[in-house]
C-alpha cells in the first residue's frame, strides 16, 4: 500500500494578486460611489426586507446559502436563485439548463469521453471538472436538499417539485466543504403542504415528445403531511443514424418519482423524510464525429487489416476510399446531427459482455433516501441533522469512431453508493447581534466502474474500484459590530481518504498490440497483463485541509448592501483511471486549492421595482488537475496537477418590474482567466501560459422579458422571450482548434395562457428559435484519429397544458 499526504499551505500575496487588485480598484470605487451617494435620502423611504413578500414590487427570495433561512438580498455571497415558478416560465426540464441564464456558469450536459446522458460537468467562474471518472472529484458541489451528490454520474436532476435552485459562486469550503472550489449548486424541493393541492402538466412537442409530470400534497392528519411527485419524459433522438444499424442518438426515456413526508410532533420539532428515484433507458449520448484522421495508428491498422478493402482504403491517392463504407476516413465526419456508428465490434470478448452485449445504451438507475430533523432546543438554539443514502447503477456504451468500423469503443458498468451524515447547531446571542453555526460532517462511499475499452481487436479493462471517507468539522459566526455593519468569520477542517484498487485494470485481449514492448520492463504485451502494477494492488491517499472565510458587510440603507469577502476551498485528490501503455504503479494526483477575494453589492431600488446585484472577484487557482494527453506517458487522457491560474472578473444581475405585468431579468458575466504557471507535464501535452482555460468563456450574457396581458373574463396571456450568449469556449485543456466553439446566441420564445382563476393554463413555446448550431463538449483522440463532440439540441417546439387543484 502506498500512501500520499498533502497539506494545505497559506500562500503569501504575490505581484499577480496585487496587480489584479490595482486593475479592479477603479471599478470597485466607481460602484461604491454610485451606491453610497444616493443612500441617505432613500433611507427613510423603504422598509428593510422581511421574510414575507411585499405587497408590490419584486418578491423576496429566501435562500439557505449560510445554512439558515434568510433573504437573498441579506446574504453577502455572490448568489443567483431561481424559483420553481421561474423554471416553469423558462421551460426548464433539468438542472443543467440553468447555465444558459446564470452569469459565469457553464453546464456541459454530456461530459467528454462519457456516453452517459446522466452525467454533467458544472463550471463556475472557469472552475470545474470535465471528467466523469469514479476516481476524480467534481469542482462544483451539487446538493439536493442539503445532501452532497459526490459523483458526476447521476447529477442531471429533473425539475421535479422544485422550490428553488441556488447557485453560489466562488469557493464555499467553510459551510459546504470539499469539492466546492468553484462554487455550489443547491437544489431545494418543496415541502409537503398543509392542505390538499396538486398540479398535473402534460407536454408534447418535436421529436415525438411526450412528457407528464405532477405533484400532490396529501395531509394525513394533524402534524403529518405528505407529498407525491412524478415525472415521465420520452422523446426521439435528434442525431440521426445514416446507415443500417445506426440508432438515433440524443433521445429521452426517463421515469422519476419522489415521496416526501413531514412530521411535526410539536411546534419545536420538524422531521422531513424523502425517497426519490429515477430510471433512464436511452441510447448513448449524442456524440458525433467532427473530424477523422485516416493516418492515425488505429485508423491505419483497421484500413489495412480489417476493412476488407485494403487496396482502396490504404491508398491515400485513391478518391474511391471516400465512397467505400468499409474504409475509415473523413466520410464518417457527418455531424452535427448525423452519425454512422453501428455499435458493432469485431472482438467477441468485447461484444458479448460487461455486463450485457455491446449495444447503444445509456441506462441509469438512481435512488436515494434522506431524513432531516430540526429541533428547537431553546428560543435561540436549534439542532439540525441531515442523514442520507444514495445509490447509482449504470450501463452505457460509446462508439467513438461513429462508423461501421471498430476503431475505439467503450462499454461501461457503473456502481456507486454513498452515505452521509451532517449535524448542525445554530443559534444567536446578544439579542440577535451574534448568529452562529457549528457542525460536523461524515461521508462514506464505495464504487466499482468496469470500463471495457476496445481498440480495433485489442480489449482492455480500464476501470476503478474506489472506497472513500470524509470527515469535517466547521463553524461560522456573524456579529453586528454596529447598526448595518456585520463581520462574518468561519473555518472548516476536512480530512479525506481514498483507496483505489486496480482489480479492473488489465489487458483482456492484446490483439494487434501483442508482443509490442509496452510493459514498463520492456517486455511484450500479453493477455492478462496488468495496466497498473501487479493485480490486487491498492493505493491510498489522504488529504487534510483548513478552509477559512471572512466577510465584512455594510447596509448603507434598506436598499443597498455591500460586502468584502475572502474564501478558500479545496478539491480532493484522486487517481488516474485511464493509462496506456501500462504503468508500474497506480498514478495519483493531489488536491486543487482556490482562494477568492470579492467585493459585491445587492440593491433593491425604486420602491422595489429594480433589483441590481453584482460582484467583482479575483481568484488564485493552484495545483490544477488538468486532463491531458501527454505523449511521454502514453495515449490515454491522464489527470495531472500541472498548472496555476489567475481568474478575475465580475457579474451583474438585474431584475426589474417597471410597470404592472412587465418583468425584465438580465445577467452579465466577465472572466479574465489565465494560466500563470505550467510545468513540464502540461508543456508536454501542449498546455502553455498562452493556452486558454477550458469552459471559461470571457463573456456570458442573458436577458428575459415577459409581459402579462389581461384579457378580462377569458384570462391572461404572457408572451416571453429569453436570450443568452456565450463567447468563445475552449472545450479541452489544449485548445484543440476543432473543439473551439465561437460565440453563439440562443433564443427561446413562448406564450402562456392562464384562466382567470389560474386553475388551468397552456404554454406554446420554441427553443433555439434561430436554429443555432453549437458545440457543447468534445474530445480529440490522436491514437484513433478521432475528434468528436456533442452539439446542442436543434430548434424544437413544445405545447404544455397544466391543471392546478
How do the strands and helices of this protein lay out in sequence?
Elements: E1 2-7, H1 15-36, H2 39-42, E2 62-63, E3 70-71, E4 79-83, H3 84-90, E5 105-108, E6 121-124, E7 140-144, E8 147-149, E9 162-169, E10 183-189, E11 197-205, E12 209-221, E13 224-235, E14 240-241, E15 252-266, E16 269-282, E17 287-292, H4 297-305, H5 310-313, E18 338-339, H6 348-351, E19 362-378, E20 381-399, E21 408-429, E22 434-455, E23 458-462, E24 464-482, E25 485-501, E26 505-509, E27 538-546, E28 549-557, E29 560-571, E30 574-575, E31 588-589, E32 592-605, E33 610-622, E34 625-628, E35 638-641, E36 643-656, E37 662-678, H7 680-685, E38 699-707, E39 709-710, E40 716-726, E41 729-730, E42 740-741, E43 744-754, E44 760-767, E45 775-781, E46 786-791, E47 796-804
Parallel strand pairs: 1-27, 7-10, 14-18
Antiparallel strand pairs: 2-3, 4-9, 5-6, 7-8, 9-10, 11-12, 11-47, 12-13, 13-15, 15-16, 16-19, 17-46, 19-20, 20-21, 21-22, 22-23, 22-24, 23-26, 24-25, 25-27, 25-28, 28-29, 29-32, 30-31, 32-33, 33-36, 34-35, 36-37, 37-38, 38-40, 39-40, 40-43, 41-42, 43-44, 44-47, 45-46
Amino acid at each position: 500500500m502506498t500512501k500520499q499526504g498533502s497539506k494545505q499551505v497559506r500562500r503569501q500575496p504575490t505581484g499577480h494578486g496585487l496587480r489584479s487588485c490595482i486593475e479592479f480598484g477603479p471599478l470597485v470605487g466607481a460602484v461604491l460611489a454610485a451606491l453610497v451617494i444616493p443612500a441617505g435620502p432613500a433611507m427613510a423611504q423603504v422598509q428593510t426586507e422581511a421574510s414575507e413578500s411585499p405587497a408590490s414590487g419584486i418578491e423576496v427570495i429566501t435562500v439557505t446559502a449560510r445554512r439558515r433561512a434568510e433573504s437573498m438580498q441579506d446574504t453577502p455571497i455572490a448568489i443567483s436563485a431561481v424559483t420553481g415558478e421561474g423554471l416553469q416560465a423558462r421551460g426548464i426540464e433539468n438542472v443543467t439548463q440553468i447555465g444558459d441564464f446564470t452569469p459565469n456558469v457553464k453546464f456541459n450536459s454530456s461530459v467528454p469521453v462519457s456516453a452517459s446522458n446522466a452525467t454533467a460537468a458544472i463550471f463556475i467562474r472557469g472552475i470545474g471538472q470535465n471528467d466523469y471518472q469514479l476516481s476524480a472529484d467534481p469542482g462544483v458541489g451539487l446538493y439536493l436538499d442539503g445532501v452532497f451528490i459526490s459523483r458526476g454520474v447521476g447529477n442531471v436532476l429533473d425539475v421535479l417539485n422544485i422550490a428553488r435552485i441556488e447557485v453560489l459562486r466562488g469557493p464555499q469550503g467553510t459551510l459546504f466543504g470539499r469539492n466546492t472550489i468553484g462554487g455550489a449548486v443547491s437544489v431545494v424541493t418543496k415541502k409537503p403542504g398543509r392542505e390538499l393541492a396538486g398540479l398535473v402538466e402534460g407536454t408534447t412537442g418535436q421529436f415525438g415528445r411526450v412528457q407528464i409530470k405532477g405533484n400532490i400534497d396529501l395531509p394525513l392528519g394533524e402534524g403529518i403531511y405528505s407529498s407525491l411527485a412524478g415525472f415521465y419524459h420520452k422523446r426521439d433522438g435528434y442525431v440521426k443514424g445514416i446507415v443500417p444499424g445506426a440508432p438515433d442518438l440524443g433521445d429521452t426515456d426517463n421515469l422519476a418519482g419522489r415521496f416526501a413526508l413531514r412530521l411535526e410532533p410539536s411546534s419545536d420539532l420538524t422531521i422531513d423524510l424523502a425517497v426519490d428515484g429515477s430510471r433512464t433507458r436511452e441510447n448513448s449520448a449524442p456524440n458525433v464525429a467532427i473530424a477523422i484522421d485516416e493516418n492515425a495508428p488505429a485508423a491505419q491498422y483497421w484500413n489495412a487489416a480489417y476493412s476488407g478493402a485494403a487496396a482502396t482504403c490504404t491508398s491515400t491517392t485513391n478518391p474511391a476510399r471516400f465512397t467505400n463504407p468499409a474504409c475509415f476516413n473523413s466520410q464518417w465526419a457527418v455531424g452535427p446531427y448525423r452519425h454512422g456508428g453501428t455499435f458493432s465490434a469485431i472482438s467477441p470478448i468485447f461484444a458479448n459482455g460487461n455486463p450485457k452485449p455491446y449495444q447503444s445504451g445509456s441506462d441509469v438507475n438512481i435512488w436515494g433516501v434522506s431524513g432531516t430533523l430540526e429541533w428547537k432546543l431553546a428560543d435561540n438554539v436549534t439542532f439540525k441533522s441531515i442523514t442520507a443514502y444514495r445509490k447509482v447503477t449504470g450501463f452505457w456504451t460509446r462508439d467513438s469512431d461513429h462508423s461501421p468500423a471498430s476503431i475505439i469503443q467503450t462499454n461501461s458498468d457503473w456502481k456507486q453508493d454513498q452515505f452521509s451524515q451532517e449535524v448542525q447547531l445554530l443559534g444567536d446571542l446578544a439579542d440577535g447581534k451574534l448568529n452562529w453555526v457549528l457542525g460536523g460532517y461524515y461521508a462514506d462511499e464505495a464504487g466499482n466502474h468496469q470500463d471495457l475499452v476496445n481498440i480495433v481487436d485489442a480489449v482492455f479493462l480500464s476501470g476503478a474500484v474506489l472506497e472513500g471517507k470524509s470527515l469535517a468539522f466547521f463553524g461560522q459566526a456573524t456579529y453586528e459590530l454596529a447598526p448595518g455593519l456585520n463581520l462574518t468569520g468561519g473555518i472548516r477542517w476536512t480530512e479525506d481518504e481514498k483507496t483505489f484498487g486496480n482489480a479492473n485494470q488489465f489487458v483482456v485481449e492484446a490483439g494487434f498490440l501483442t508482443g509490442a514492448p509496452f510493459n514498463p520492463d520492456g517486455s511484450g504485451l500479453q493477455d492478462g497483463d496488468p495496466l497498473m502494477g501487479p493485480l490486487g494492488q491498492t493505493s491510498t491517499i489522504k488529504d487534510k485541509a483548513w478552509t477559512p472565510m471572512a466577510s465584512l458587510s455594510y447596509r448603507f440603507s434598506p436598499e443597498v448592501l455591500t460586502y468584502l469577502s475572502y474564501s478558500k476551498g479545496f478539491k480532493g485528490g484522486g487517481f488516474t483511471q485511464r493509462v496506456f501503455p501500462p504503468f508500474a504503479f497506480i498514478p495519483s494526483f493531489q488536491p486543487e486549492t482556490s482562494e477568492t477575494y470579492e467585493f459585491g453589492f445587492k440593491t433593491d431600488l425604486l420602491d422595489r421595482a429594480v433589483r441590481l446585484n453584482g460582484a467583482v472577484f479575483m481568484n488564485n487557482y493552484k495545483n490544477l488537475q488538468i486532463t491531458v494527453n501527454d505523449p511521454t506517458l502514453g495515449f490515454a487522457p491522464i489527470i495531472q496537477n500541472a498548472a496555476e491560474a489567475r481568474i478575475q472578473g465580475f457579474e451583474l444581475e438585474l431584475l426589474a418590474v417597471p410597470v404592472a405585468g412587465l418583468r425584465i431579468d438580465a445577467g452579465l458575466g466577465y472572466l479574465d482567466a489565465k494560466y500563470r504557471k505550467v510545468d513540464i507535464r502540461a508543456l508536454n501535452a501542449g498546455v502553455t501560459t498562452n493556452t486558454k482555460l477550458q469552459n471559461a468563456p470571457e463573456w456570458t450574457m442573458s436577458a428575459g422579458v415577459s409581459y402579462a396581458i389581461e384579457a378580462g373574463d377569458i384570462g391572461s396571456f404572457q408572451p416571453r422571450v429569453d436570450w443568452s450568449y456565450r463567447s468563445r469556449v475552449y472545450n479541452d485543456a489544449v485548445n484543440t482548434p476543432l473543439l473551439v466553439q465561437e460565440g453563439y446566441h440562443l433564443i427561446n420564445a413562448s406564450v402562456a395562457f392562464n384562466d382567470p382563476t389560474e386553475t388551468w393554463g397552456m404554454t406554446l413555446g420554441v427553443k433555439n428559435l434561430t436554429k443555432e448550431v453549437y458545440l457543447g463538449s468534445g474530445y480529440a483522440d490522436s491514437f484513433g484519429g478521432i475528434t468528436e463532440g456533442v452539439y446542442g439540441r436543434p430548434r424544437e417546439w413544445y405545447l404544455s397544458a397544466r391543471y392546478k387543484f
